[in-house]
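Still learning. Any example?
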Amino acid sequence: MVNFDLVIEMVNTICKGDVSNGMSFNEFCVKFYLETKILPLSKFLRLKGYSSKIPKIMNTRKAGEIIFESKNSNEILELLKKEGFSEIPQLNYSSIMILRKTSLDRNWIKLISYLKGEGTIEQIVRNNKKILLPEEKIKINEYLQSELNLNSTELSWLLNKFEKILSEKKILNSIKKLV
């Protein structure tokens, strides 16, 4: 049974960015995850008017899941020991922005990189994206050219524009409003 009052209280705590009620950040994340794991959280948050804070809230939940699952995983605890962490390291709101819907070990590899100062969040996320093989790139290019009726020059132009659109949120939002 979900305690909705507690969930809303915890969501407000996440929005404020201050976990100071006698719990560590990791403990708070695990408690939040356990309280919300059977709840369709993003839908609940939209209904309650927390749309602008959904990424931060969902990443806090993901952090709780990762910490909870890691406590019983010898593989993850061994990975952390190899990297110089005798126990699960304390996370914070900035470190959890790296988390994605990938495997437990991939998320920990990214977290360890961030905690060791090996790059910014954006650099670490970009470096951990799946790299396409040359054959895959060729097939994707061929598919796009045939589906969009473009030649290689036009596709190259489109990809350059699309890269700029994705990198500048203001442009992307403007295009979404027009479409």
Notes: DSSP finds ten helices and no strands in the chain. The CA atoms of residues 2 and 36 lie 7 Å apart. The two ends are 41 Å apart (CA to CA).
